[in-house]
Amino acid sequence: MTASASALALTACGALGGGGSDSSTPSAKGDGITVGLLLPDKDTARFEKFDHPIIAKEVAALTNGKGKVVYANAEASTATQSRQFRQMVARKVDVILVDALDARAVAPDVQKAKDAGIPVIAYDRLAQGPVDAYVSHDNELVGQVQARAIVKALGPKAASSKVVVMNGDPADPNTALLKKGALGELQGQVDIVRQYDTDKWSPAVAGANMRKTIRSVGLANIAAVYSANDGMAGAVIDALKAAGATQVPPVTGQDANLDAVQRVVSGEQYMTVYKSFLDEATDAAQLAVDKVQGKDIQFDALTRDTVDSPTEKNIPARLVPVVALTRDTVKETVIADGVYTVKDICTPAYAADCAAIGLN
Predict the structure, then answer these.
(1) What's the mean pLDDT in 36-48?
(2) How far apart are CA 305 and CA 137, in angstroms?
(3) Which is nearest to 330 in space by CA: 277, 281, 260?
(4) 189 vs 268: CA distance, rounded Å
(5) Is residue 41 within 8 Å of 61, Cβ to Cβ?
(6) How far does CA 213 lie from the centroid of its chain?
(7) Which residues of 249-282 are buried (b: 16+ CB within 10 A; e: fewer)?
(8) Which of 93, 183, 276, 325 has the most CB atoms around it within 10 Å of its CB?
(9) What span, in angstroms and rounded, lies between the C-alpha atoms of 270 and 327?
(10) What contacts 281, CB < 8 A, 6 or more positions away?
């Protein structure tokens, strides 16, 4: 959804509130607003390259250049994110967008913001505590799309194929949804020989677990690897190649990082899930600005869905669709949306691979 389309979808019907009638409802403000943006890490390339600049640009566009974004990145430290959150509250920002590193740990900070009259919108991951809204993707569907790709790649041999499962961080609420979607598709369809949860989505941890699996299961016996995101996929592929794999088995990913897209083009990574962070970030900025300015949100427009967290029920939500990115769909996804150019992807190292799929 573009910014203009988002704006047209807003009408005065209902209020954007959290999971209950006592949600934060600040006094309406004009264009001179301050949005606090808290992102979780720098290992995931999209946060620095796309989410932050898109949100900052959209907030400025929606406020005639008068609104601003105060940004902080936790760099994978829960303690750092908590400190940054408290600093945002002390600074008296008008609204906080938070992509929680640890959904449960951030709940007290969300409560502090509520007590201070500052609304909080959970971004990308569903934070616990009295959040006012949630903007993300359908993460269960992400897991399903990844798993279906593996089953399709394995074909008739799927049932007897040994598959390794690399889940994300158990502290991330998205991980449970991804696992639910993925395992719902994989169980009974393939032989899951090893399954890991990966602390803080760390590529280093994923790589170490992959090397351990190769030693115990045997390189030749690994038919595919379900990797929940691209950072881990890169580490998994490196481990497989270092062990002597001349043909890397199907490996999944998520986020459409540039290096992952290049691996897909070259055939090293089977697929990644493209989640339009343009739509996600744009919608988050729209909700943040409208919340501060006291505008009503029509629940069947931007927040047509609702979700539950362990602490709140019926949280208004915007769930952006996802698609599989493969060698056949690079043009119609990240290139069509302007995320990357052909020049970005087709560096000299990938020129031949790009030419082979007509990407030039």
Answers:
(1) 91
(2) 11
(3) 260
(4) 23
(5) no
(6) 27
(7) bbbbbbbbbbebbbbbbbebbbbbbbbbbbbbbb
(8) 325
(9) 8
(10) 50, 51, 54, 55, 58
Q: Identify the burial level of 80 via C-beta atoms within 10 angstroms of its C-beta, where 0-12 means exposed, 13-18 middle and 19 or more buried.
A: middle
- Chain position carrying tokens 């934060």: 24
| Structure token pair of residue 309 | 């967290």
Tokens of 195: 């399954």
**Closest-CA residue to 192 (of 229, 166, 173):** 166
pTM of the model: 0.76
Q: How many residues does the chain have?
A: 360
Do strands 34-39 and 95-98 pair parallel, antiparallel, or not at all (unpaired)?
Answer: parallel
Nearest to 166 by CA among 229, 214, 217: 229
How far from chain centre, in Å, is Cα 204? Answer: 19
**Band (277; pLDDT cuts 50, 70, 90):** confident
pLDDT band at 266 (very low <50, low <70, confident <90, very high): very high
